[in-house]
């Protein structure tokens, strides 16, 4: 059976940084009659800074920046790619698929399409790429993401209630990331499992741009019921994680690092404690980089490799959490 191994991973972060204090100042400047309590954003999230792309930069540009670095490091030309998947919550436009913009900017001339599932987009993109490699249809697949959630942040706030429903936007960060999967005889991805409770889709949305709200600017901002989202994930519980370990016959200490999607430090601590994750194996990136959406997991894996926390032959765990709601687990041997 064909296996899919990670032949490389890279990330790109915009140089412009925005502190949580600056977030509050921006809200204060744009909002008549509402002033957020000083320090509330960092106190509630643990985020000190996040990355903001320039207005001229598109989601595809961030994906391309990461992909160019990845391909150079791997010694692979864009012409040698068999398939490109753009896997992101963001997109350049509704049509065509952003994967085509990525291919055009890279100079790739292969099939391309998008995979979208909120912050689990990359994890699902890897799932799709692995399956296509396993069938023998492709040998080398680029999974790339470019996230520009800063475009959907509400800066003009009427009152505390609107501030609360818009709060997730103040955690988000722009980023690009890319992972190269290649056919291999051994190693690579050896477990993947996903669960969803789609009845909870309304707890977190970015409603605009689709058939429900095609043009109304009011629907172009993130809206989230934080307590309801947390309750939805608590209802899923640790059973999917326990089942993944049991299926692989492993424990968390068998992994060099554990990459986990991160929204706020209190949520992360709850997950680590509740699931029994060894804290020293978890790659924590949230305080200095914010919520990188679907770029979180590849950025954490790239960071772990650069820091020497993981190396070829090691096992790594990828745990994704996303609106919808969905949870995914993937185990990989590097």
Structural notes for this entry:
The protein is an alpha/beta fold. The protein folds into two domains: 3-184, Thiolase/Chalcone synthase (Peroxisomal Thiolase, Chain A, domain 1, 3-Layer(aba) Sandwich), CATH 3.40.47.10; 188-333, Thiolase/Chalcone synthase (Peroxisomal Thiolase, Chain A, domain 1, 3-Layer(aba) Sandwich), CATH 3.40.47. Helices cover 33% and strands 23% of the residues. The protein is built from eleven helices and 13 strands. The longest helix has 16 residues, at 59-74. The radius of gyration is 19 Å and the shape is globular. It starts with a strand and ends with a strand.
Question: Descriptors for this entry?
Answer:
334 residues, alpha/beta, Peroxisomal Thiolase, Chain A, domain 1, 2 domains, four-stranded mixed sheet, 13 strands, globular
